[in-house]
Amino acid sequence: MAANPQLKTLRELHELDRSIISLRKRHEAIAPETEAVQQTVAELRKQVENLAAETKRTRTEAARGELEIKSAEANIRKLIAQQNQVKTDKEYKSLQQEIATQRADLSRMEDETLQLLARIDELEAQRKSVEKRLVEEEATAKKRCEDLEAERRKIEEELAVLAQRRTELSHRVEPDLLEKYEFILARRGETALAAVSEATGWACQACYTQLTPQMCALLVGGKIVSCQSCARILYLAE
After folding, report:
1. Which of 67, 14, 40, 26 is closest to 191 using CA atoms?
2. Pick the CATH number of 22-172 from 3.20.20.30, 3.40.718.10, 3.40.50.2300, 1.10.287.1490
3. In the predicted model, is pLDDT for residue 1 greater than 60?
4. SS (H, E, C) the chain
5. Where does residue 32 rank: exposed (0-12), middle (13-18), buried (19+ CB within 10 A)?
6. What is the pLDDT at residue 143?
7. pLDDT at 84
8. d(CA 18, CA 121)
9. Which of 30, 40, 72, 127 satisfies CB 3.0 to 4.6 Å to 106 for a cystine?
10. CA 232 distance to own-chain centroid
11. Where do the structural domains in the chain lie, given as residue ranges?
């Protein structure tokens, strides 16, 4: 079984490219992950703002209700005073009916205002709960974003080292073979090369197409062979 130095170097290059591809994928994922962390914090801040705004609106409605209650109470007192001064039974009953109506309205206003005050307490409790979560999430997000930024810088440093190593390896591969490999790499990515072995029936382990006897002989003889189906460059599995 003859060894091909070019194929050996190409396999080294391919392993390097696999590492580069993996690092690039992780590098690309860091920005969306950072945005997702920041989005969680932004959503909690928005919740706090919305709860504060709703609390303010509810306080305004409750204050308006309290003013209406005072006005209604004053009006009822006025009607009672008038009732004590009327001279006819008809006028008395008319005012009595008006007072009853006003009292019913007053009772409704008091119930509505009490509901608004209860809603304010509820909103305040919700806001405090969300603010607590926000403080916790901000601390967690800050740490996570710092970790992601450190990871990003480390990956970029590793990629720079690998890029230099790749240049060195590429110069050791014959131009025609390198061009062929680069073409396949652009389309197949991490699986630009595929293993073949007698144990697996001399089939390409990427697409499982069986090699012809002639292709097997060439591969065993140390020649560069490509899969006739998927075009990947083949190598003998160790």
Report:
1. 14
2. 1.10.287.1490
3. no
4. CCCCHHHHHHHHHHHHHHHHHHHHHHHHHHHHHHHHHHHHHHHHHHHHHHHHHHHHHHHHHHHHHHHHHHHHHHHHHHHHHHHCCCCCHHHHHHHHHHHHHHHHHHHHHHHHHHHHHHHHHHHHHHHHHHHHHHHHHHHHHHHHHHHHHHHHHHHHHHHHHHHHHHHHHHCCCCHHHHHHHHHHHHHHHHHCEEEECHHHCCECCCCCCECCHHHHHHHHCCCCCECCCCCCEEEECC
5. exposed
6. 97
7. 86
8. 58
9. 72
10. 36
11. 22-172, 174-238
Structure tokens at 124: 């305040």
From the CB of residue 120, how many other CB atoms can be counted at a distance below 10 Å? Answer: 17
Mean pLDDT of 101-120: 96
Answer whether residue 2 shows pLDDT above 70.
Answer: no
Q: What is the mean pLDDT of residues 167-182?
A: 96
pLDDT in tens, 143-172: 999 999 999 999 999 999 999 999 999 999
Other C-beta atoms closer than 10 Å to the C-beta of 181 total: 21
From residue 132, how far is each of 13, 42, 127, 137, 141 by CA, in Å? 52, 14, 9, 9, 14
Q: Which pTM does this prediction carry? A: 0.76
